[in-house]
Amino acid sequence: MPVLNMSKSTAPAGIYPPVTKLNPAADPRKMRRIIAEDPEWSLAIVPSLRNLCLQHIVQHFEEKPVLNNLLPSQKAFVLEKLPSSLPLSLTANLISDEGYWRRCCEDRWGMRDVSEYDHSWKRMFFERHLENIIELFIPDQTEPKSVLDVVALCQNYVRRLKITQLLPPIKNPPKFDEDDTSDSASDLGNDGPSMDHFDFRILLNKLTNMEELQLVYGVRGCGMNFEWNLFEFTFSDCEFLAKALKSCTTLKILKINQSKVDDEKCRMLVSHLLDHPSLLELDLSHNIIGDRGARAIGKLLNRSHLKRLDIYDNHIRGTGAQALAHALSKNTSLLSLNLRLNQVGDEGGQALAQALLKNHILLNLHLGANELTEPTATALSHALVHNSTLRRLNLSCNRLGEDGGRALEEGMSHNNSLLECDMRLTGVGLESEYCIKRHLRTNQAKGMRDTPASRRSIEN
Question: Is residue 194 within 8 Å of 209, Cβ to Cβ?
């Protein structure tokens, strides 16, 4: 059979494809090319329709908030992407996610310890936000509506306010006559009118979960603009605050420190705190309360449920301490009394010791730096023989002397309940101090054996 010898040149059309010859002189810039706009683009990272919809929700959340109708995973995606700058009128009652409020806190104040806010970032944000508004409130200039608008949003979350400054109204600069020859700048500080501060009546009755209030009537970091009026707790301030406190029936802890609370203002506050349904702790330390104020506080002790009273660093003397002792002898609720840095003297010290003979509830008594001497130590020694409830006694920085030390040593030898007794800088002598500490260690060991856990271990 003959063999066909077919070459490309003689082959019929259609067996081999036509050959296209490239022109080596062709311009490569005129050649067709495809260049991706995103060099990292890949079909594998094309966002899903679900993510595109969620991103749209995030971008338009302020105009149309969509959250509660989403699935849990979708809701978590949106909350993670939402900015912390959204208006509170939108987020306060809509968002409860702790992760979102944590970002709000950290973006505004940096890293903070949330444990003192019951580990609630939302509570921390609203408490600190309201504190900042009050601390920057300028009477007669700041609109009260700015506070009330925030209160309407945060009243369910605020349980404590720690106000470290309260600003007075802005005064107009004084006018000087050309012939004024006075060159004393210190004469200008007290000539102006009374400087009233923020009125708490517009606030406290609206905070239905309020439990603790701490106040300082002064200006933080005033620097070269210092004036005494910046640290004045006026009588109007006191009257407004007292009425506000009476309306805040959920309040448990009240602290007013470094605010020049004197006898009259103390009496005003106490008159509105009598028979308060929930107050448990009162701290009026670092003020200028005297004997009349102490008598008012003594009246409060037996017309309240106070468990802790701190009135240290005031001007209370013997008469005021006697009034407190009289109330203490009848009191059935107070657990801790701190009177350090006053001037109660032996007159007040002996009265307080006599009160311990009748009081069977007080656990802690602090009488440090009160000008006490040997007569008070002797009275306390007699009280320790009969009192079986006191656990901590502080007598530091008094002039008890060696005779006072021996008297306390005798009383401690008959006491089985006192666990701590601070005798620093009292001059009681090393021997008496050693013996007192030995009795304390015995009581401490006995107390450990008497605990329920210890009794169970002994029984087992």
Answer: no
* 16 has a pLDDT exceeding 70: no
| Distance between CA atoms of residues 413 and 399, nearest Å | 22
Q: What is the mean pLDDT of the chain?
A: 87
Q: How many CA atoms lie within 13 A of 392 on its CB side?
A: 11
Residues in CB range of 111: below 8 A, 6 or more apart? none
Q: What is the pLDDT of residue 173?
A: 55
pTM, to two decimals: 0.83
**DSSP class per residue in 307-357:** SEEE--SS---HHHHHHHHHHHTT-SS--EEE--SS--HHHHHHHHHHHHH
In angstroms, the CA 340 to CA 323 distance is 16
Which DSSP string do the residues of 120-131 spell out, in sequence order?
Answer: -HHHHHHHHHHH
Q: How many CA atoms lie within 13 A of 339 on its CB side?
A: 31
Type of residue found at 304: S
CA distance 179 to 185: 16
- Quick check: 273 and 301 in contact, CB under 8 A? no
Q: Please, what is the Cα angle at 285 between 433 and 195, to 5 degrees? A: 160
**CA–CA gap between residue 396 and residue 372 (Å, rounded):** 10
The helix (run of H) or strand (run of E) holding residue 432 is helix 430-449
- Residue 368: name the closest of 341, 345, 343 by CA: 341
Render pLDDT for 184-202 as a digit per residue (tens, 0 to 9): 444 444 444 457 899 999 9
The band of 459, judged by pLDDT with boundaries at 50, 70 and 90, is: very low
Q: Convert the pLDDT of each residue in 131-140 to its tens digit.
A: 999 999 999 8
CA distance 447 to 416: 9
Please choose, from the candidates 333, 379, 323, the residue with its C-alpha nearest in 3D space to the C-alpha of residue 356. Answer: 379
Task: Identify whether the C-beta of residue 218 lies closer than 8 Å to the C-beta of residue 258.
Answer: yes
